[in-house]
Design goal:
Strand content of chain B: under 5%
Radius of gyration of chain B: 19 Å
Strand content of chain A: under 5%
Structural class of chain A: mainly alpha
Oligomer: heterodimer
Number of helices of chain B: 13
Order of helices and strands of chain A: HHHEEHH
Number of domains of chain B: 2
Distance between the termini of chain B: 40 Å
Number of strands of chain A: 2
Number of domains of chain A: 2
Order of helices and strands of chain B: HHHHHHHHHHHHH
Distance between the termini of chain A: 38 Å
Number of helices of chain A: 5
Radius of gyration of chain A: 20 Å
Shape of chain A: flat
Helix content of chain B: over 70%
Number of strands of chain B: 0
Shape of chain B: globular
Helix content of chain A: over 70%
Structural class of chain B: mainly alpha
Chain lengths: 105, 239
């Protein structure tokens, strides 16, 4: 086991480098930002959520790998989300599909 | 100041609390499972029980915690661990910038900003940006409460996993963590409410995909987000 002081240092420093990127930009006064920044920010959530949620389903270890339950289960989840507009139903359908596919594949 | 900023709640007390919990519940369930596995893995890797709990409480970062665990067990240096964590989590800067603008109208106090930032994760960001984008009546209590439920379940999962480590090593049911993916997909569909946004999303995925094929780097998400936003701005100008 690594010694305690090392582990405490790891936790403290990790806290600093995870908390500051979250917290510092939020402290900025956005009143005087130019309008084009606001227009670009409008697209930030959709761009970042698409990038971090869809890409790992399509690509693993630098290769396109679609024959995985993660990818197949995403199809009913997306369809359910689009047509039902119901979060709980979509999560239930997605998780159930993933578990079912996982036991077959 | 605080009083005026949060004086428009539609519901107060237990009613709002249970609604907040209901909306956070997919994240709560997903976080619990993932951090349970984290606690389990940490203790089985020879770490003391307090370590996964402290990490869940103070670091509160999914992928970074797993990466750090792997690095600690492989005997990496402090610098490597901290730098890796920083790079993996740097994407939160983008989310924080967005929230700075989006929460401006709500007139959060300094303290409320620090508190909110402490609970900012991929999932809470995704969920809150949908709410804010719809113009739904959101107040500070809802946002911070939502984050607190998620954070609490993250810590409890880590604690329980660490305690059960010697009994439950064979019991790993990893599959509930797909709840998080499913939630992000639902959020993505909700966010794509205009044609321009759908195109911006596809551009971001295409860019992220191309970059991930070349190599996985924490900067990929920055580039992909900028490309997505750029495409969106161009489309707005044209129409």
């Amino acid at each position: 086991m690594p010694d305690q002081t090392f582990l405490i240092l790891v936790v403290v420093l990790m806290m600093a480098v995870t908390f500051l990127p979250r917290a510092l930009p939020l402290q900025v006064n956005t009143d005087h930002w130019p309008p084009f920044v606001a227009r670009a920010l409008e697209y930030l959530p959709v761009a970042i959520v698409a990038a971090i949620s869809l890409t790992p389903l399509l690509i693993k270890d630098q290769h396109v790998q679609l024959d995985r339950p993660e990818f197949y289960a995403a199809i009913p989840t997306l369809l359910c989300a689009y047509f039902s507009k119901n979060l709980f139903l979509s999560v239930a359908v997605g998780t159930a599909a993933y578990i079912a596919l996982g036991s077959f594949m | 100041m605080n009083e005026t900023s949060s004086s428009r709640p539609l519901m107060v007390g237990p009613q709002q609390r249970s609604r907040t919990f209901a909306e956070a519940s997919p994240v709560v369930a997903g976080y619990f499972t993932v951090s349970f596995v984290f606690g389990l893995m940490a203790v089985n890797a020879g770490m003391p029980v307090w370590l996964p709990v402290a990490m869940c409480l103070f670091v509160y970062a999914g992928a970074s915690q797993f990466a750090a665990l792997a690095l600690i067990t492989s005997g990496a240096s402090l610098t490597t661990i901290v730098l890796t964590t920083f790079l993996i989590n740097a994407r939160h800067m983008l989310m924080s910038v967005y929230m700075a603008k989006a929460l401006q109208a709500m007139g959060l106090s300094r303290l409320e900003r620090w508190c909110y930032a402490g609970g900012l994760t991929d999932e809470s960001f995704a969920f809150h940006s949908v709410k804010l984008g719809k113009g739904a009546s959101v107040n500070v209590r809802y946002l911070i409460g939502f984050n607190l439920y998620c954070h609490t379940s993250w810590v409890l999962g880590g604690l329980l996993g660490a305690i059960c480590a010697q009994y439950a090593a064979h019991l790993i049911k990893y599959q509930l963590d797909y709840a998080l993916t499913a939630m992000m997909l639902y959020v993505l569909v909700s966010l794509c409410n205009t044609r321009n946004k759908l195109i911006a999303a596809l551009a971001a995925v295409a860019c992220m995909g191309a970059l991930s094929l070349v190599g996985s780097s924490p900067f990929n998400v920055f580039i992909a987000t900028f490309v997505g936003c750029g495409v969106g701005v161009c489309l707005t100008k044209r129409s």
